[in-house]
């Protein structure tokens, strides 16, 4: 009995110590984190105001192989949104919003985690310094209950570590992106060439849509396939190739268009979603035109390929449209049009 009383006294003592100590811990935290990256703001800002770009390098999302993310239009700027959930941890889910944007200068995020009704408020300021960008993160954490208030003692360290890793990821991603842009600048557009292309394995989806809404539908298909490859299969940027659309070369004249949209992978993976399938592109000879401009403008380049094949009395396969820049809602494209030919 004496030991029970002693135990109760100990519990009450530590409870009192905890209660007193927590009165000195704020309900929520405000802190500022400043980082610099050696790329100009026009390269950096699009990685923050487009949530599909953001989740590729932000370690909170990119490090979790089991995280499934769904994006909502508009896909960039004010009003953009996404939701996420962990397929193996039901308690790990949330929503992320862009509430304000001053292009090239400021962004405001809201991040709701789990069932909490109050969000993290994250304001970002971008300061251009020649070929560098200084990024200032202003973070306001949601109020914590009395029992969870000790989390505020470590929240800043957690954010600092995540942002440190994220900025390293972003630096590497932008390095690859800038190298790719340099390669694109050296391309000769609108000229027909002959190339010998290697075989490729694509994972993608089959789609049928109205011709007058084709490009909008392609952008949706791209997001579906890319999200599956990155989130469900856990592929990093250097583990897959540039997306390819395959269809009949002359069906641009039809009211309805059927196509396969896929992303190249190095080997077959286990696919649990029946909407996705693999398709192999054979190696061989191709007539090729590199095209840049509105998606509708590609028709002239396709006609050039078909005319050349007819003049050379070559049989043709399905047209392959490789998107060297991802298809986005603005309808601007940089692509490689490849027509397989054989005798």
UniProtKB/TrEMBL annotation:
InterPro entries: AraC_E-bd, Reg_factor_effector_dom_sf
AraC effector-binding domain: residues covered: 190-342
Taxonomic superkingdom: Bacteria
Protein name per UniProt: Polyketide cyclase
Organism whose genome encodes this protein: Chryseobacterium gotjawalense
């Amino acid at each position: 009995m004496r030991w029970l009383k002693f135990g109760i006294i100990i519990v009450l003592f530590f409870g009192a110590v905890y209660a007193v100590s927590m009165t000195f811990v704020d309900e929520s935290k405000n802190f500022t984190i400043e980082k610099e990256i050696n790329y100009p703001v026009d390269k950096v800002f699009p990685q923050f105001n487009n949530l599909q770009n953001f989740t590729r390098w932000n370690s909170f999302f990119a490090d979790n192989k089991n995280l499934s993310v769904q994006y909502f239009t508009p896909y960039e700027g004010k009003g953009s949104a996404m939701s996420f959930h962990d397929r193996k941890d039901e308690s790990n889910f949330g929503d992320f919003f862009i509430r304000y944007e001053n292009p090239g200068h400021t962004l405001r995020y809201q991040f709701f985690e789990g069932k909490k009704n109050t969000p993290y408020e994250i304001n970002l300021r971008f300061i251009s310094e020649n070929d560098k960008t200084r990024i200032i993160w202003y973070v306001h954490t949601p109020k914590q209950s009395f029992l969870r208030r000790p989390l505020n003692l470590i929240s800043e360290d957690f954010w600092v570590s995540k942002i440190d890793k994220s900025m390293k990821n972003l630096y590497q991603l932008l390095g690859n992106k800038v190298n790719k842009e340099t390669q694109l600048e050296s391309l000769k557009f609108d000229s027909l060439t002959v190339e010998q292309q290697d075989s490729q394995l694509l994972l993608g989806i089959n789609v049928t849509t109205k011709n007058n809404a084709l490009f909008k539908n392609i952008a949706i298909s791209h997001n579906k396939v890319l999200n599956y490859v990155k989130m469900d299969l856990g592929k990093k940027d250097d583990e897959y190739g540039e997306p390819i659309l395959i269809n009949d070369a002359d069906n641009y004249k039809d009211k309805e268009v059927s196509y396969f949209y896929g992303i190249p992978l190095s080997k077959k993976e286990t696919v649990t979603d029946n909407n996705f399938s693999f398709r192999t592109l054979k190696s061989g000879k191709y007539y090729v035109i590199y095209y840049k401009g509105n998606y509708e403008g590609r028709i002239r380049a396709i006609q050039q390929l078909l005319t050349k094949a007819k003049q050379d009395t070559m049989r043709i396969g399905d047209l392959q449209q490789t998107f060297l820049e991802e298809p986005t809602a603005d309808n601007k494209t940089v692509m490689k049009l490849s027509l397989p030919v054989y005798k």
